[in-house]
Amino acid sequence: MKIQDIAFVVVFLILLFSKKPKAFVWAGLACLVLAIPLFAKWIFFTAERLTWYAAAFFLASIIGIFIQDRV
What we know:
The protein has helices spanning 3-18, 21-40, 44-70. 89% of the residues lie in helices and 0% in strands. With 71 residues, it is an all-alpha fold.
């Protein structure tokens, strides 16, 4: 487990306890913005991980929105 994985888990848990789906969207967008320069510099491992983290944040946001709508 690398440092970016640990940072992702920490941020994900913090956002999960905040219960704000919009915050997940902003975190996902931030991951994508951070991945763009890494792809440009050919640092593919970290950039690919950031895109997977963005997908996880977006999925958590969608699930959170569905849960809020049901309540």
